[in-house]
Predict the 3D structure of the following.
Amino acid sequence: MLGLNLPIEGSLMKEIPCAVEHPGTRETAQPTPPSHPASLPSESANGPRSGKLIIATVIGLAIGAFFWFDLDAYLTLETVKANRDRLLAFTDEHRAAAVASFIVTYSLVTGLSLPGATILTLMGGFLFGSLWGTVFVNLGATSGATLAFLTARYLLRGWVEERFSQKLGPIQEGFANNAFSYLVTLRLIPLFPFFLVNLVSGLTRVRLGTYVLATALGIVPGSFVYAYAGRQLGTINSLKEIASPNVILAFTLLGLLALVPMLYRRFAGKRVEPVNRTEAPSQPGTKLNASHQPKGSRS
């Protein structure tokens, strides 16, 4: 590289590099790459991070507002019983709005894992009857459970698999192969918290369609029992009167029945394989039987 002294603005001189060609060679000035390319921000990496941060912030603010304004006080048995006449009057006059408000409220309570789903189920049976109450509860609960499932999968699944992939690998595979039976059992047995099943399922590899179908079917018996009890809302003084030991035992048996197809496939697959009677190939130097000797080898 040579420097040419060119006059600039009269007396100022500036050394400007230029390219010089030699026979067979060519030098061109190239832009200097950044010294630390890995340190530059990545749009693809920052995009998902910012999206997760926004979603987590919105969820945190919603949960905080629920408890800050004491909204949980409206989802108690005493409050519903005290306002039963107003709720019935509103439902009779604005049935479509009452149904839509009920389903949306149920979805938000379930999706944000807030307390009050049991009271809402009783309210559904009280306002809409045991049959339609079960249908509307199922729509709200399944929608909210799907929302919680997708949120947990988007926010936490990558982090969990990145740090615990080796330990959770066999569990993930087993759950994915028998996801429907497992989920129906977890939904039927009331000993497993509903919100916990939603969040944990989002960390697994179960398909969304399987999760939605198993949830919608698995919560039908419990929803019907509570919706049916909601029709006698005036005579109920405690939730323990509904969740009696006999009812819990019945749900547990139903949950165990859901595991029967999975157990059948597991034990039916363990069949004894037939013994392979194929003779081992003869080694060099060993004698062959007369029946296996090639033609022309007999004397």
Observations:
- The beta strands are 2-8, 12-18, 21-22, 25-26.
- The chain has one domain: 49-267.
- The first strand starts at residue 2 and ends at 8.
